[in-house]
Amino acid sequence: MLNFAAEAEKYRQEFVALLDQWIRIPSVYSDAAAPAGMPFGREVAQAMEWFISQGREAGFATKAVDGYAAHVEYGSGGEYVCAFGHCDVVPAGGGWSGDPFRLAKQGDRLIGRGVIDDKGPLLAAFLALKIIRDQGLPLKRRIRIVAGGDEESGFRCIRHYFQREPKPAYGFTPDAKFPVINGEKGGLTLEISGGVADSGLLIRGGEVHNTIPGSVTVMNCSADPAMLEQFVKAENLNLEYIRDENTVRGFRLIGQGGHSSKPEQANNPVEKVFRLLASVGEAGRLKDLVPLFGGDNRDGMLFGLDQQGRCGSLTLVPTILRLEGGRLNLTLSIRYPENTGMAEILEKMRRYFNHHGLAGYSITAGNNKRPHYVEADSSWVKKLYNVYVKHTGDTRHPIRVTSAGTYAAEMGNAVVFGGEFPDGSAGNAHMAGEYGSEAAFIKAIGIYAEALWELGNL
């Protein structure tokens, strides 16, 4: 039996060198005008072309699908199995100690935007395919490694891809944690907008619907400085004044950002700013929104949405806030279990708004990703888990579900399989200082090689 872990070690230098190249492409979604074939902007297209070029240089078959996604492929046969990751990244934001688009190395730690979400894990799967090919391992099915370009901004990539390509017999996405995640909540983005009295107040926070921002900027707020300082201390925030020469024009509330699927790990400044305005008497018409979006209604209970299912409970998290010229725009990231859905969520929220004097606000649905569940005792799911245990010796962490949303829901017969290990060796996805462990990535290459080979022979 081939020692996959030993073979993976041979790719250590290549992995670091290639990851450095890929990280240097700031593949953040852009809706700016771009040539045909670049639906997500020039930088995402560049990152996808880099991926294709690596496959081409390695001698694999490659295919670009209208700029939405691209794959490299090895083997023959009617069916295929795949690892489907993404090459787009969230904006870097502030708080980095170095250039987020230059791979930094501190001992075993690799740092940069996209290191763990998701360029590093996807690159590990690509190198795993090279092991299978280089060792001449027999296969009953083709194997594809697929890179999407719009995971962070709406999943248009994978949906378009499967309009052009058949779905895999078995698949996984390397876009969360080991060992195996067999179920995930649905994800819904809502936009709430409406007019408020124009007091000159200006608020701006957040950039991406699925990322809790690290700060919110408030201008032209007449809050008493002593009350402001007291609030900041009580809410475990930091405060940064914005000055024009010697005059204070505004301030920045600094909390702790993070992924919107894990609000309990953040200190959301969007929630806090609602509470702040209420506490200092600046809320005005916004005061009716404070109980809804100030942090005490994350389970949606006030809307009658506090649901619990096999994939967990519903969470409702504000991530983007704009208030300017008397116009409010608020983005919500909602994660919901399999026993509810977009129609019920919209109906109950609109009913609440209509019955509580908030009919002037509109509620509009944006991207919606359905929940997903694969039985944990499926033979192929257990095979993935057993490969993980073989390489790690870890039996403490079971197959589980997640609140995050991944490509698995769009792939059909698919689960999440890595690329983070449950030992804290990677972290800060969607935050400053995103990092992963070099040693862990090499381990992942071996795991992916054996797992893809096993799936390719089922």
TrEMBL record:
Q: Quick check: keyword Heme in the entry?
A: no
Q: Name one Pfam family in it.
A: Peptidase_M20
Query: A biological process (GO) annotation for this entry?
Result: L-arginine biosynthetic process
Q: Which InterPro entries match?
A: Bact_exopeptidase_dim_dom, M20A_pepV-rel, Peptidase_M20, Peptidase_M20A
Its Gene Ontology molecular function terms?
acetylornithine deacetylase activity; dipeptidase activity; metallopeptidase activity; zinc ion binding
Q: Which cofactor does it need?
A: Zn(2+)
Q: Which UniProt keywords apply?
A: Dipeptidase, Hydrolase, Metal-binding, Metalloprotease, Protease, Zinc
Q: Which family does it belong to?
A: Belongs to the peptidase M20A family.
Concerning NCBIfam families, the annotation shows: dipeptidaselike
Q: Mind telling me which PANTHER family this protein's record contains? A: ACETYLORNITHINE DEACETYLASE, N-ACETYL-L-CITRULLINE DEACETYLASE
Name it. Putative peptidase
- Give the source species: Acetonema longum DSM 6540
Record lineage: Bacteria, Bacillati, Bacillota, Negativicutes, Acetonemataceae
